[in-house]
Amino acid sequence: MKENDFLDNTTIISYSGDNYEKTDFSSISEIDFSKNKTNIKWLNTYGIQYEEAFKTIVHQNKLDDFLIKLLSDDEHPNKVILLDNLLFVTIRVLKTESHVLDSEQMIFIVSTDFLWSIQEKKGDYFNWIRERLEGNKGIVRKKSADYLLFLLLESIIDNYQDTYQENAELSADKLNSSHIKPTPEFTSLVEKRKQELFNFKKATLSLRDTIIKLEKVEIKGVESKYFSELKEQTNNLISNIDFELQELESKINLIFSIQGHRLNEVMKTLTILSVVFIPLTFLAGIYGMNFENIPELKFKYGYFILLGIMVLITIISIWYFKRKKWF
């Protein structure tokens, strides 16, 4: 049953400048990389759990036995390993189909005349490459497996860039500088976007490190020149992410500045009111004491004079504050 599941999730495309053939399998024994050496073969498998099937393919194609150990590991950090006439590349790729960013493991086993790609989950990253191979568009059918690896990695980077641009446009609408409000909702949107960008940056940096390693690989039939362009693409994406992160940081600082300004305005108003009422409270306190010998208490117009003094103090205080432009 597991073998049938593996076969249902595995296809091979064999191509050259003159022909193209896509094959489904009825048996693992049909997977033969040595057959028809003039063609380039692209074997693609969805799922990384088929250890026995992987082991059988490695043995019957007489590939480096160390592949069995590498393919049996559940988790791989991004790495590039040079084997016997083989290149083992593994990367963790962001899944960008939904708003919640997930990741999956991708493995590429590359030789001069074949490439075996293993994807943890089904996806449509590489459909455009299959269409170009089938339609004989561009130069892909005239190139070796190393060029196919270049296109696969470029497809991942393009997907990152497209998703980043799409999310950046949505973010620009929601987080427009003219609509900045020091509210928990706005701050939450900014922090959510920052977390998305950190995930993108982490994945892109990891992918760039893998590409830099590929640049330095020396193996017969694999041209490292293709990967210089990929490194530039990842550098450009990282620069764009860093620029947006700086913009978001500026918006957070502006929010804090607005909140601080509002707090200062409130404190200034309260301080002015306090300064106005302190002398009034002082006078009211004096004449509110219960001593019998307070001369002014027996004065006929003392109450009105005191009210007049309070009004005068209030007017003078307000005039002074306005002159100082405190409000």
TrEMBL record:
List residues traversing the bilayer: 270-289, 301-321
Q: What SUPFAM superfamilies does this protein map onto?
A: CorA soluble domain-like, Magnesium transport protein CorA, transmembrane region
Q: How does it sit in the membrane?
A: Multi-pass membrane protein
Tree of life domain = Bacteria
What Gene3D superfamilies does the annotation carry?
CorA soluble domain-like (3.30.460.20), Magnesium transport protein CorA, transmembrane region (1.20.58.340)
Q: Which reaction does it catalyse?
A: Mg(2+)(in) = Mg(2+)(out)
A Gene Ontology molecular-function term?
Answer: magnesium ion transmembrane transporter activity
Mind telling me which GO cellular component terms the entry cites?
plasma membrane
Which keywords does this Swiss-Prot/TrEMBL entry list? Cell membrane, Ion transport, Magnesium, Membrane, Transmembrane, Transmembrane helix, Transport
The principal localisation class reads: membrane
Q: Quote the subcellular location field of this record.
A: Cell membrane
**What Pfam families would the database entry show?**
CorA (PF01544)
* Recorded family membership: Belongs to the CorA metal ion transporter (MIT) (TC 1.A.35) family.
Under the heading PANTHER family, the entry gives:
CORA FAMILY METAL ION TRANSPORTER (EUROFUNG) (PTHR46494:SF1)
Role description? Mediates influx of magnesium ions. Alternates between open and closed states. Activated by low cytoplasmic Mg(2+) levels. Inactive when cytoplasmic Mg(2+) levels are high.
Q: What is this protein called?
A: Magnesium and cobalt transport protein CorA
